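In keeping with the milestone schedule agreed at the kick-off meeting, the structural modelling team has produced records for the first pair of proteins. Each record is given below as a sequence line and a structure-token line. The laboratory manager (R.T.) confirmed that both were archived under the project's standard naming scheme.
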Amino acid sequence: MGENGVLQTRLRNGLRVHLKEIHTAPVISCWIWYRVGSRNERPGVTGISHWVEHMQFKGTPRFPAGTLDRTINRDGGIWNAMTWLDWTAYYETLPADKVNLALELESDRMVNCLYEPKEVESERTVIISEREGHENEPTFRLAEEVQGTAFRVHSYHHEVIGDISDLRSISRDDLYQHYRNYYTPSNAVLAIAGDFRSSTLLKRIREYYGGVPTSDIIDFESRVEPQQFGEKRVLVEGPGETPFVEITYHSPAGSHPDFLPLSILDSLLSGASSLNFFGGGISNKTSRLYRELVEGDLAAAVSGSLPASIDPFMYSIRATVRSDSEPDRVVDVIDQEIEKLLQEKVQEAEVSKAIKQARALFAYGSESISNQAFWLGCSEMFASYEWFETYLDRISEITSERILEVARSYLTPQNRTVGIYRPRGGTFNG
């Protein structure tokens, strides 16, 4: 048993297992993480990882489609899944005495999903409709153009949901091959937190997963994004009444030493943002950009985003521009605030406040059993569980000098893409 009551081990077939005992409530949260997401996709099959996630709910011989929902609901549990840049994750949160159900259905889904042609075509309609729904959102249209412009070479170029042309052409065999390639024990992490004894639960895990055969991953090697040598600009026009701004800087990987100082820099500029997909937010009204843009009547909202990823990704600042304001003016004000950061040392009191907010938000996003299980696996996808365990200590050591250093390294015009959405009025079709 490691620190904080976490047991970490690996089965002979390569499956990594992380267990954390939490005896505050008779509940368990079981997560299975696969190292596959949109990063592992090539042009022609973009969106395939997300589509495979959908197909995993379409049944096996042991659990036909529809029976899983009834089984989980009958036992008072919840379950779901998500696909992102670097991973796909499935989870069940159940009464502690139903842990065998989670182990059985996930070990079964790892091997025996059917991918019936009829279900594939049905889900094609669902996913294309989902994609079209996103396209009705100006923020999605802008974000997709900015991301695709910022990344010319790396597979982070496309959105997780994929390109519409690929969603129309991906075949059942494409999906099944993607499933068989990546859904194997050596490419997975099983993370469980809750009310159990680790030694007893580990025996059950060996029973359910020990006999699952592993296979070598035929991995897709992402190409390294070349250095950007000048600012890029994107203009998107479309229906609506509200302009939007998104400014994106190439940022370090989640495991890089500059990542956490940059996250505190984001807290100073736009307010602390949660690293947990289930984490709540806290007020950003004391952040520099809120004061200048929102209180200055230029924007209705402003936020920042710095996801933790395997490869260098993006730090984004987004603003909802007031209809009586101009996007270019919002960009100018953001530039002015960044220039202040680059030229003037941030006061230690302001750094301390930003760190305190980040600590609080991290705590809010880590307190429940489900969140604890989330971090058991998620941190392993881009770094290791030690990244999570040492987070609070590491951000407490960040100084104003370190913030200035990362600001000068990343927040340069040559390293960014500026996107503006200009509304034409009217509504979206469809």
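The second protein of the pair:
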Amino acid sequence: MRILVAEDEKDLNRLVTEKLVGQHYSVDTCFNGREALDYLESTSYDCAVLDIMMPYMSGLDLVRRLRAKGNKVPVIFLTARDTIEDRVQGLDSGANDYLVKPFSLDELMARVRALTRNSYGVSQNIMTVGDLIMDLSTHRVKRGEREILLSSKEYALLEYLMYNKNTVLSRERIEDHIWNYDYEGGTNVVDVYISYLRKKIDKPGETKLIHTVRGSGYVLKES
């Protein structure tokens, strides 16, 4: 899942980014509202974590512009403003959530999970496809009684496939959601990681869950 972090406090930006990366998210970062608008208008993100008081454009103005253009990316505001009026203004601007500084990074991660779940119509942290189970809160993956150990990118790819189960996803769409702007790998990176996942998910004798749709992409579903 791909997240944008826009926060002009560089130490806080780094801490939030490192925590998200440690939770298997792909993260782009910037330090002012103008940059954040450019990112959000050019790429489809699963969530945006935005400071309110940013240079060049406030988070409030940024979200208002996004919503006016029909951009529905889930937004969490980070801010030192903690009055009821400030919270109301933030939510009325179009944000989905509001977290007051200082805050717990674990709480922020829980709120990111909740927003991304809601945007995909998922109501809990446990996702299943057949006998494949993913726990979003612990990052454990099991198939039946067999625990599956995944790299960070393998986990992120499987999470995105599970959020979109029964939906054919193009290679371009997968790449846009799993890799950030800093990625400099090969053009077949999606195929390579799908191959890695298949070796761990679809063992011989088990029902095939990861399917190739020729000319279109990949889909996770029960056969």
